[in-house]
């Protein structure tokens, strides 16, 4: 008997012809939990992937939000990140799922996002080098795993731990927006054994894109190492 990865209720699904021919991949979340996830679709920011319907028109120019325009106006971070694609709006349901995965040690929850992660990777970033955002040693020891690495594993392609996080910081969830926007360009380092990345397309993997500060700090290091482009996939936006 299969149970929902999040609420552990019994999974009850109707059988269709798609099941008979193996054409449908079943969700590992129950209908209630799955319906609580708000998929990002329709018009969105070309840069960060935020749904246009979630912020007023005056906060964007054409298809790009003002946050991304400000990032591109920063001399250090201009053209560092090509684009971010997030799977779901970071609503209360997704917040609860990610909190359970990260802070209660339920690593199995990463499997619930496998199908959507593979779909986005195959459609937009096929062949890109997959690079999970690393945790500091202290945070990794405290948590027992890196949630970004667990998500990268769901792609079923090789991934590269090219980056190391040298600074142990307060949790992002405990910071104000202004604190999150303060990037230290030395937060991440490239491992010494990493080969030249000249001409390489990279896609970073993380759980949530909030301000884009963490993603861009990591992207900057890859670009400085010669990466041709850096994009990102996150579960929440």
Automatic annotation (TrEMBL):
Transmembrane segments: none annotated. Keywords: Glycosyltransferase, Transferase. The keyword Ribosomal protein does not apply. Residues 143-234 form the Phosphoribosyltransferase domain. It comes from the Bacteria. GO terms for molecular function: glycosyltransferase activity. Belongs to the ComF/GntX family. This is Phosphoribosyltransferase.
């Amino acid at each position: 008997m299969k149970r929902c990865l999040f609420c552990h209720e019994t999974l009850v699904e109707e059988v269709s012809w798609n099941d008979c021919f193996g054409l449908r991949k079943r969700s590992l979340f129950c209908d209630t939990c799955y319906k609580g996830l708000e998929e990002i679709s329709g018009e969105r920011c070309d840069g960060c992937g935020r749904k246009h319907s979630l912020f007023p028109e005056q906060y964007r120019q054409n298809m790009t939000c003002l946050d991304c325009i400000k990032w591109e106006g920063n001399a250090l971070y201009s053209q560092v990140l090509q684009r971010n694609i997030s799977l779901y709006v970071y609503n209360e349901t997704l917040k609860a799922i990610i909190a359970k995965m990260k802070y209660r040690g339920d690593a199995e929850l990463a499997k619930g996002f496998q199908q959507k992660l593979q779909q986005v990777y195959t459609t937009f970033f096929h062949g890109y080098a997959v690079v999970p955002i690393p945790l500091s040693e202290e945070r990794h020891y405290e948590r027992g795993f890196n949630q970004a690495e667990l998500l990268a594993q769901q792609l079923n392609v090789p991934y590269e731990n090219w980056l190391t996080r040298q600074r142990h910081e307060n949790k992002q969830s405990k910071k104000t927006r202004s604190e999150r926007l303060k990037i230290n360009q030395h937060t991440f380092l490239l491992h010494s054994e990493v080969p030249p990345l000249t001409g390489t397309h990279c896609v970073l993997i993380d759980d949530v894109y909030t301000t884009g500060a963490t993603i861009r700090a990591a992207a900057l290091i890859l670009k400085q190492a010669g990466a041709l482009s850096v994009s990102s996939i996150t579960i929440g936006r």
